[in-house]
């Protein structure tokens, strides 16, 4: 399962290059740690050995200058072991990057990659890992995460939370939980993960979410740089899908569309750097996981509480194609099927220059 062909055409990147990007980051996670400290390597290369006026092939051990460089590196000692959390964080982020690329052309493989990244983030003690897991699988979080959110909101823990579900273990986390929970983004990810499994039986928690200080904070968070209050409201709306007569579906749609427009603008701006864009090296993620994850959570909530399901063309068709990319991935993660959009005769998009959608964004 892939995003619709019209969205590939809007992206204007070669699918094979996107696949290679996924393979690169997956391969990174399988590499052996370097035997030398990176700072020592940089110092040795900066010194340059005896022959600073010519390039050196560091694999040519027959070259006396190269042998001198390797000898110098060996004398500086072995690689200093990093803090325990560092290799886990590097692996988590590489898997996240691989998932972002893979979700565009192979949803099942991308979902697996997302779950692998999530496990590493959970090991670190980051609620982002819970959010990714719930978005990718529909799982519920455990009692420790629910209690942590209750503590954040200043209400008694309810004991809710699925046993044997994905959960945080503060005693085994590689990062300190108090320091993690001081970060607004992690508070938001915890909220998103918990509300995905809320039921009407927890009115105190629902009320506390709506009155929390975060619900009025205007400062930007996440890659889309949208206000914290907007994301917080989105989580609150997902929790309120239990009230089928409240207009929640329309409000959720409008909020997600707002985020999607922001992501579409980021993609459109990145397309102007033609070289990096067409080689899948842009500095912006082709899929925004915050948006895709929130869309997946919302789509499952609509289905759970028997509200009309979202349709990409009907509900989000007024958005530019670039703005629909993360929404399409999110709807698929949430159980939707976009295959009907593609005509079998629709050709594979070629690696041409990106589509110019400036007029759609008002630039």
TrEMBL record:
The keyword Transmembrane helix applies. Residues 338-363 are annotated as: Disordered. Keywords: Membrane, Transmembrane, Transmembrane helix. It comes from the Bacteria. The chain crosses the membrane at residues 121-139. This is Uncharacterized protein.
């Amino acid at each position: 399962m892939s995003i619709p062909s019209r969205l590939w055409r809007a992206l204007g990147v070669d699918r094979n290059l996107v696949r290679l990007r996924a393979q690169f980051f997956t391969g990174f996670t399988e590499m052996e740690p370097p035997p030398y400290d990176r700072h020592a390597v940089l110092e040795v290369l900066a010194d340059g050995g005896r022959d600073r006026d010519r390039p050196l092939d560091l694999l040519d051990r027959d070259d006396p200058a190269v042998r001198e460089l390797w000898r110098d590196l060996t004398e500086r000692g072995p690689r200093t072991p990093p803090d325990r959390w560092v290799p886990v964080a590097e692996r988590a982020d590489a898997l996240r990057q691989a998932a972002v690329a893979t979700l565009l052309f192979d949803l099942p493989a991308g979902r697996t990659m997302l779950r692998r990244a999530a496990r590493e983030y959970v090991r670190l003690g980051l609620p982002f890992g819970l959010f990714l897991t719930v978005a990718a699988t529909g799982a519920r979080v455990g009692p420790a995460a629910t209690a942590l959110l209750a503590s954040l909101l200043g209400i008694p823990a309810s004991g809710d939370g699925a046993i044997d579900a994905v959960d945080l273990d503060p005693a085994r986390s590689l990062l300190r939980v108090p320091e993690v929970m001081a970060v607004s983004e992690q508070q938001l990810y915890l909220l998103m993960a918990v509300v995905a499994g809320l039921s009407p039986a927890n009115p105190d928690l629902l009320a506390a979410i709506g009155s929390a200080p975060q619900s009025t904070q205007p400062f930007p968070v996440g890659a889309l740089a949208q206000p914290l209050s907007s994301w917080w409201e989105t989580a609150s709306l997902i929790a309120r899908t239990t009230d089928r007569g409240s207009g929640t579906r329309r409000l959720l749609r409008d909020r997600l569309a707002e985020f999607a427009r922001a992501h579409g603008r980021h993609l459109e701006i990145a397309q102007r750097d033609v070289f990096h864009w067409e080689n899948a090296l842009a500095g912006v993620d082709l899929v925004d996981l915050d948006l895709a994850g929130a869309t997946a959570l919302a789509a499952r909530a609509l289905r759970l509480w028997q509200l009309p399901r979202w349709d990409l063309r009907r509900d989000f068709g007024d958005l530019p194609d670039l703005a629909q990319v993360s929404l399409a991935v999110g709807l698929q993660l949430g159980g939707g099927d976009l295959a009907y959009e593609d005509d079998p005769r629709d050709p594979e998009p070629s690696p041409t220059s990106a589509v110019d959608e400036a007029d759609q964004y008002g630039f």
